[in-house]
Amino acid sequence: INEFTSPGARFAVGAAEDADVGSNSLQTYELETNKYFEVEVKEKQDGSKFAELVLRQPLDREREQSLRLVLTAVDGGDPPRSGTAQLYINVTDANDNPPVFAQDRYRVRLIEDATPGSMVLNVSATDPDAGTNSHITYSFGETPSRVLKKFVVDAESGIITLQEALDFEETRSYNLLVEARDGGGLVAHCEVELEVLDVNDNPPEVVMTSVSSPVPEDAPVGTVVALVKLRDRDSGENGQVRCELSGEAPLLLVASSGGSYKVLVLAKALDREEAAFHELVLKARDGGEPARTGTARIRVVVLDANDNAPVFSPAEYTVRVPEDVPVGSTLVTVTATDPDEALYGDVKYS
């Protein structure tokens, strides 16, 4: 009898035979007490009586797969005599149970440098039905195509596997809807929340957002020469960046808000005549283990200012001139130099 059989259904179980006649013949049937079936006595046109089982309560194969009942036929003699028959009732399965996942929601963490082919998670569902009704296949439910490129689920085992490299900086988490379907078409779902863990796979970047070059050599101390932005796409300590300045230059690196830095002229003034330009290297280091670094070079040209007067060499000349020297004769050549450049260093005499 199928477990989906509706209460009220009837099943003929045949008739007992009694060779006696009259009141000594078969009179009724009795069924062993149980919660599912009752027996009703039916009479044929020839007066013989047979039994029918009547289902009073729905069956459940998952609770009881079979029943063994005793049917008794009783005559009307004094004392009455009886005979028994064993009724073996096999309850056949109906697909009345959907699959059930071990968890409604799974949470899993996966490091972003996990290799494709790595197992992410093994989801599991059970179905108490029998045969094909209990055979479960797994698949993804409604899921964006970009996620389906990253993950695959084995239809038989429920093992979810990574099939494309992850990138924390691109996507930090995924939500997967996994579907379990039994052989009768009943479906259950569970959700997989996957968190991608960061690794220190990005070097810090040093970006010059503003550079003032050339810088006048008479610029006052504190003049901003360049603004530097530090970036690291990693998170946590992997994205915490420190910056150092290297190179011989009268410049100082000073932190400001928003992760930017200011490059300032030091207390030592610039002197183009001493150095016409300065080359520096900005080196950034993140807090990862091991740390990753990034560098940027900056060249600051010093713009000349007219900060030097001409200088005679020597500062005093002694000239002896005969009194009869002709007019227009060269008496002496004096020389002055100026270390400034261009017009600032172009010396005229008077």
Automatic annotation (TrEMBL):
The keyword Transmembrane applies. It comes from the Eukaryota. The gene is Pcdhgb2_0. Residues 1-101, 102-206, 207-312, 313-350 form the Cadherin domain. The lineage of its organism: Eukaryota, Metazoa, Chordata, Craniata, Vertebrata. This is PCDGE protein. It comes from Eubucco bourcierii (red-headed barbet). One of its GO terms (cellular component) is plasma membrane. Pfam families: Cadherin. The keyword Methyltransferase does not apply.
